[in-house]
Amino acid sequence: MRLIFILVLNTTYSCHSFQRYKHRVTCFLLSHANAFLSESGQIAILKSLVRVQDRAKSKIMLPTIQALLSKVWDVSPVDVTLVALQELIVQLVACFDATSAEVLNNDENMWEVFLHVVRVYLRSGVFLLIS
User: Fold this and answer.
1) Contact (CB, 8 A) for 19 and 8
2) Which of 67, 76, 65 is nearest to 110 (CA)?
3) Residues 88, 95: contact at Cβ < 8 Å?
4) Is the Cα dihedral 31, 15, 98, 94 positive or negative?
5) What are the pLDDT digits (tens) for 40-94?
6) Is the Cα torsion angle 63, 68, 71, 74 positive or negative in sign?
7) Taking the CA of residue 21 as centre, how many other CA atoms within 13 Å lie in the half-sphere pointing to its CB?
8) Which residue among 42, 75, 105, 127 sits deepest, i.e. has the most Cβ atoms within 10 Å of its Cβ?
9) b or e along 97-118 (b: 16 or more beta carbons within 10 Å of the residue's beta carbon)?
10) Which of helix, strand or coil describes residue 97?
């Protein structure tokens, strides 16, 4: 089942009804990522959607992004890696892709959240771990 969703979501077929279907499936999966209490469940769903471009990704994941930010902002960079949140940080940063530009340009709150996520990403040293 998971393989079917991944194949469908990574297809670039341009039919309008297919694009709507792809968007609905993406939103469905992202809402489940938000609902997971464990980081491993969230990471698994986000990894399966990493190649899917949808401008709604950053908006739908906003509650998870804000929860992560409140959790790690006051934690020292060393502790972030010990808490094992680096993979979730990477996946949430990836939600802000080229399709997010319109949302970031038009929504001041999303721009502030984006800057905050990037600061946490850079502060945690995660980019050093995956380079």
Assistant:
1) no
2) 65
3) no
4) positive
5) 889 999 999 998 989 889 999 999 988 888 877 665 555 555 445 778 888 888 8
6) negative
7) 12
8) 42
9) beebeebbeeeeebeebbebbe
10) coil
* Nearest CA-CA partner of 53 in 90, 77, 91, 26: 26
pTM: 0.75
Which of the pair, 120 or 9, is modelled with greater confidence?
Answer: 120
Round to whole Å and give the CA distance between 21 and 49.
Answer: 15
Tokens of 93: 């940063």
Question: What is the Cα 99 distance to its own chain's centre?
Answer: 13
pLDDT more than 90, % of the chain: 25
**By C-alpha distance, which of 22, 16, 17 is closest to 51?**
22
